[in-house]
Amino acid sequence: MSIINTYKPPAVQELTEPAPGPFDVYFNGPVPERLESPRVRLIPYIPYLHSKAFFNEYQKNPDLEKYLPVSWPDYPTFLTWMQHHVLSDPKALVLTIIDRTKGNDGENIEESIAGMIGYVNCAPQNLSLEIGPLIILSRAQRTFVSSNAIGLVLKYALDLPKDGGNGYRRVTWTANPNNQASVRAAERMGLKIEGEMRWTWVMPLGKDGGLPPVDGTRGAGEGRNSTLLSLCWDDWEAGVKEHVEKMMERV
Predict the structure, then answer these.
(1) pLDDT for 161-190, tens place per residue?
(2) DSSP secondary-structure letter at 108?
(3) Which residue in 71, 98, 224, 246 could disulfide with 201, CB within 3.0 to 4.6 Å?
(4) Are strands 192-202 and 170-175 parallel, antiparallel or unpaired?
(5) String of b and e for 127-146 (b: at least 16 CB within 10 Å)?
(6) What is the DSSP string of 2-25?
(7) Phi then psi for 138, rounded to 5 degrees?
């Protein structure tokens, strides 16, 4: 019996500006119109509304990219990567983080945008997903923003439908093992370390991943491991939900 394989990688066209008009979030799970706490709002990331404001703040601090397995040296690179590696993936949903204490309850995006968060590797058939990408902009770090944004996506995933959630069983989080701030942030919100996954990323050329390439025979970029953490439904119902809600209320 003969076989064929008609798959072709999608063509990557560099973007210089987001396309206007209706935006298809193209996600395989439910899409919230908004998720809110008294101080933070999460809304679906719409490139032509949010990209410029996000990148203008992001590029002010090169350290934000230190532990990321990507490199965005300019605006077109950022737009192109987001479109072709995240927004076009049906397993991924990106949400814009809005600080409601700024700009008339967050209506002024340039003043109130605080980062992005969302889901990747969403598998509705297994009731599991991963939190990511998570980037808290410098002006919102060491504030209530991180705990509220993480808490909102945890509640939307793990709460039962009668409580406004989706009743998922498992939420994961992966981090650069050297990024202890990310690991601690997850642990503070109730996630538990499961272990370290090896060689999970091929890094952009010139970026340190901690695992040198093997004499060029397996690609040119360095490799990177990932610390894996998780939070499951039984943890959630055994007290982690209440812990998360208290963390969201902290000043």
Answers:
(1) 999 999 999 999 999 999 999 999 999 999
(2) -
(3) 224
(4) unpaired
(5) bbbbbbbbbbbebbeebbbb
(6) -------PPP----SS---S----
(7) -55, -40
DSSP-derived pairing of the beta strands 128-131 and 170-175:
parallel
Q: Give the pair of three-digit tokens for residue 110.
A: 């340039």
Running DSSP on this structure, what letter comes out for residue 211?
Answer: B
Residues forming a β-bridge with 130: 120, 172
The DSSP code for 125 is G
Percent over 70 (pLDDT), the chain? 100
Q: What is the pLDDT of residue 216?
A: 74
* Residue partners of 10: CB distance under 8 A and separation at least 6: 84, 88
Closest CA to 241 of 173, 154, 121: 154
- Two tokens at 184? 């601690």
pLDDT in tens, 72-116: 999 999 999 999 999 999 999 999 999 999 978 989 999 999 999
In contact, 106 and 100? CB cutoff 8 Å: yes
- Pick from 144, 162, 166: which is nearest to 153 by CA? 166
Output the six-digit token pair for 62: 């090169």
Q: In Å, what is the CA distance from 199 to each residue of 106, 107, 130, 221, 226? A: 40, 41, 18, 11, 8
Amino acid code (one letter) for 243: H
Q: How far apart are CA 104 and CA 155, in angstroms?
A: 26
